[in-house]
Amino acid sequence: MLFLLLLCMGLLCGCESLVNDLDQDKLPKVEAKLAVSCYISPQTPRFEAIITESQPLFGPANYNPVFVENAEVILADDVSQVRLIFDDSLKHYAADSSAFKIVAGKTYTLTVNDGKRIVKAKCTVPFNAVKVMDLNIEKAWAGYGTDSLASFRFSWEDVKGQSNFYAVRGAYTLEETVPRFYPETGDITPFRYTYRYDMYSYYRAVYNDINLDGIKFNAPAHVIYSIPRRIISYLDKKGVERTLDNDPRLRDVRVEVMCIDEHYYKFKRSLENNDDNPFVEPTLVYTNIEGGLGIFASFNAVGKTVNP
């Protein structure tokens, strides 16, 4: 028995660590790169580009974005160009689209130069636009009290004859009147609140018509809780009891389907594949930025607005 214990101790002492620390000079040298995020469309009123700097894999980590504020950002076609100016309050570069028109079917180049690094990318705005779409809103009892639900169902027909990529986005407005307190004066008076909410933010982001030419696409149903109608009692500044009708309204329901370019599609799909799933291998995020990271892409959007 003693012999076995001594033998085990000898074997354990002879084992070397499987984990070794590498010297910093043996690690690969990775320089920070410019990271670009810019989308253009004939329908957007202004151009916007976010320029940040990547963080090397080895070294101290900072989880806040490192904005590049001194870059020259140029958007150009074959004959003209516009410079995007940095907006310090919004931390992005911008220019009004009245000075430079985006046309479906044309190719555009984005160039970013911060004095140390130059990156560029190209994209072609999709010529196609969806012509047939449908938006339905169905209301139903929520199952208790007077509460109700509203379900938005959106569909569109694929543009036939060529490959297409799509993305869907939407928004709606909820309104209601409630008492509002003004601390400066002590008054309590009715106030009309307006809330604008996005749709489809957490659903499948993009679609394609590979082997599906001409079919009808259906976006996931988006269900919301409708504000119930009620009479609200409150005391005004003088202590007098008052009542009001909150008069809830659902309005300006707008859904857009965007014909997106292939860069847009590949970038969004690569983001979907990087969802921290522990059972899949990590994949690289797609980029079309030469010499950098990020995305420069385009889309051609049409939409439908309903006031139920």
Structure description:
InterPro entries: DUF4249. This is DUF4249 domain-containing protein. This protein has 308 residues and is mostly beta strands. It has 2 domains: 31-126 and 261-301, no CATH class; 133-257, no CATH class. The protein contains 2 helices and 19 strands. The chain has helices at 2-14, 262-272; strands at 34-40, 46-53, 66-67, 72-76, 81-87, 92-96, 107-113, 118-124, 133-141, 148-157, 165-182, 187-199, 206-208, 216-218, 222-226, 231-235, 241-245, 249-260, 293-306. The strands form 3 sheets. Strands 1, 2, 3, 4, 5, 6, 7, 8, 11, 12, 13, 18 and 19 form a 13-stranded mixed beta sheet that branches. Strand 9 and strand 10 form a beta hairpin. It is globular and about 75 Å long. The mean pLDDT is 89.
Radius of gyration: 28 Å
Query: Could you give a short account of the major beta sheet?
Result: 13 strands, mixed
Q: Tell me the span between the first and last alpha carbons.
A: 85 Å
Strand content: over 45%
Shape: globular
Tally of domains: 2
DSSP E strands, number: 19
* Helix vs. strand class: mainly beta
Contiguous runs where pLDDT drops below 50 for at least 5 residues: none
Percentage of residues in helical conformation: under 10%
The run of helices and strands is HEEEEEEEEEEEEEEEEEEHE
* Residue-averaged pLDDT: 89
Count, helices: 2
Protein name: DUF4249 domain-containing protein
Pfam family, one: DUF4249
List keywords for this structure.
308 residues, mainly beta, 2 domains, 13-stranded mixed beta sheet, 4-stranded antiparallel beta sheet, 8% helix, DUF4249
